[in-house]
Amino acid sequence: MANEKYLDNSNYDFYSINLGKIKPFTSSKIIEKKIYANLEKLHPCFSDFSTFDYVIKSEGSNSVAKVVVIDTLLLVEYKNSHNTSYIKIEELKNKKCFLPKKQKQIKKAFCISCICFVILFLAFTFINKYEKQKMALENIPQIVEKEEEKQVFDIVDFIEVCLPIFSDSKIKVSYFEYNGTNNPQITLHTSGIQREEIENQILSVHKDAKLGFSSTTYSDKTPHLSFTLNCDKQIIRTASFCDIQASFIQIRNSIFSVKGLPVSEEIETRQYQCIIPYNGLNTFFVDLLKIQNEQKIRFEKLIFDYNQDIGNVNCIIVLDKLKCEEVIDFSNFLLVFKKPLEKQKINEIAPKKEVEITDDKVLVGKMPSADGSVILYYRTSDGKIVYEKE
Which residues pair with 65 in a beta bridge? Predict the structure, then answer.
């Protein structure tokens, strides 16, 4: 151990944070939440790309957290270049900082086992002597103070809460966007539903949900509006990079299997754009769940732009940079998008103004529409995807 090298102090920041009096057996989540709140005030540019480790020490009647903060990407590079699973710093000479989760769990399990053994030993030693006192105490009702926790709202909750709303055939969703890693935002464009109906449904289940609405416009007495929902979910990511290339290959194979159309893929920005036919959406959503589980990857951004007239969905998928155990299941999300209009109903709709296709267009590909005609998709000079019937 004497030969171990300490990380240069220019590569990390060290803080002592007074946590006040902490009750015995306080959960690590509550402690880390307090540390996180203090670091947001103390540490410049503290963000999702920063990570921290800590040791709790007693100073007088208070508990003080000795905290080391480091950039997540720098931590990964250091571990890889030094072939080590932890780092050492001068301020915490006896601690192996940033150990992998499994090693921490093993260490925690060993400590808990030791504590349990000591408790059981003392219990069996003195059980006869204090049997009467124990029986008396068991008859006294125990009052446990519980901290009221704020409800956490995530996309999984959104799907469960909102799907019943959109099961009505008169209500339509033409656009869905999920944007962000921590505290993500969900955006929908809807028609056939009023603002108060959405508010009542969501707030009746999650009273802390944060909603925002656009103004409501009307077309032939049908309301059209957009609304956003800010989620409170803190995603736990690892210090390992995702295999973007492997994920892209699986996404590409899924697109071809459902007779979709790949539009673009950018490794540097981790963005994939494609067009999926309505009939292939369910299989595509199942494949996305499989890719998440196999690659331990989560989406940083998702956009589903649905054109019910032609029955195709324009999809933009941005993958997260770091691995994550939590996944998003879209298997039931197909209910949000209504089936493509039948051919006779499409003909009854007033014709829309055609998108002008200029000479600088580039053909992306062809796909059949819901009425059997062929749709030509083009990319314009400003990167937009437009279409016209063949």
Answer: 17, 56
Q: Is 99 exposed, middle or buried (0-12, 13-18, 19+ CB in 10 A)?
A: middle
pLDDT of residue 3: 62
Positive or negative torsion for Cα 119, 122, 125, 131? negative
Single-letter residue type at 177: E
Which of 191, 378, 357 lies closest to 275 in space, CA to CA?
378
pLDDT tens-digit series, residues 143-180: 444 444 555 555 666 666 676 777 777 888 888 888 87
Among the listed residues 343, 270, 267, 286, the one whose alpha carbon sits nearest the alpha carbon of residue 309: 343
**Tokens in use for 211?**
């909603």
pLDDT by residue (tens digit) across 170-206?
Answer: 888 888 888 876 677 888 898 999 999 888 887 877 7
What 3-state class would DSSP assign to 386? strand
pTM of the model: 0.54
333 or 32, which is more confident: 32
Q: Is the Cα torsion angle 326, 329, 330, 332 positive or negative in sign?
A: negative
Q: What band does 1 get if pLDDT is binned at 50, 70 and 90?
A: very low
Report angle CA 239, 244, 248 to the nearest 5 degrees.
Answer: 155
CB-based burial of residue 244 (10 Å sphere; 0-12 exposed, 13-18 middle, 19+ buried)? buried
**String of DSSP letters for 7-75:** PPGGG-EEEEEE-----TT--HHHHHHHHHHHHHHHSTT--TTEEEEEEEEEETTEEEEEEEEEEHHHH
Is the backbone of residue 171 left (phi > 0), alpha (psi -120 to 50) or beta? beta
Decide the pairing of beta strands 217-219 and 210-213.
Answer: unpaired
Around Cβ 124, how many Cβ atoms within 10 Å? 9
Please calculate the CA angle 322-325-327 and round it to the nearest 5 degrees: 100
Residue 338 or residue 271, greater confidence: 271
Contact 364, 331 (CB under 8 A): no
Query: Hunting for tokens 């003195």 — which residue is that?
Result: 126
CA separation for the pair 91, 75 (Å, rounded): 17
Residues 336 and 176: beta-carbon distance below 8 Å:
yes
